[in-house]
Amino acid sequence: MFGRFVRRLVVVAAFALTVAGCSGQPEDDIDPVVGTPSVTPVVPLSVAQATKAALLVSDLPKGWDGGVAADALPTPGYRGEYDPPECLVFRHPTDLLGTPTTAVRGQYFIREPGASVTEFIWSWPTRLDSFVADLTALLPKCSKYTMVSSDKVKYTWTATRLVVPGVAGAFALRYRSSAPDGDPIPVMYTAYVVRGGTIVDLEADIGFTDATFSRLVAKAAARLNAAVGP
Questions:
Q1: DSSP symbols for 105-157
Q2: Mind listing the pLDDT tens digit for each residue in 147-170?
């Protein structure tokens, strides 16, 4: 089901960028469930289960702290203008999934000089079995793309998939970016772990290496497994 959904989202994203003058934003009147002729229902996580799935400060490397973010489902900001346009969906694949039944924002960890991790646990009432496969299919086209920001600066993004040993249903990336002025931009990391209709979304910036981020994804997967149960 979700495979056909994402393929439709790719078309919708490209169409929306064209008719909206390359606004880079999903159209407000797009029905997020169009193109889903069949769905497989699943019981979404409760708030208690999703909260249990969130990482703890002790899961991060020594020196981190954090707290619980007040806004579990923040409104997406301006996403930019993407080329190829399909890479808007690749970079923000949960944008057009519709409002989740359950949304918990994991602890927001920060340490000097500004390294951070943001975690979201989202759960829908339908299975997302092909989520990882669809992102994998888009990777060859979106391993390198450009994004024009709201202030009209053009960035080139390079995405490299990371291996997360022993973890099924995970898709992790290292992002590198360059701007026209040549200023260095910190490496960024993103990952999704999928179980049934639930996605754990991790975003990290400076303070990580490929190995340390992969270990964090593995810990997030283990906590999700424990929360979901057998």
A1: EPEEEEETTTEEEEEEEEE-SB--TTHHHHHHHHHHHHSEEEEE-TT--EEEE
A2: 998 889 899 999 999 999 999 999
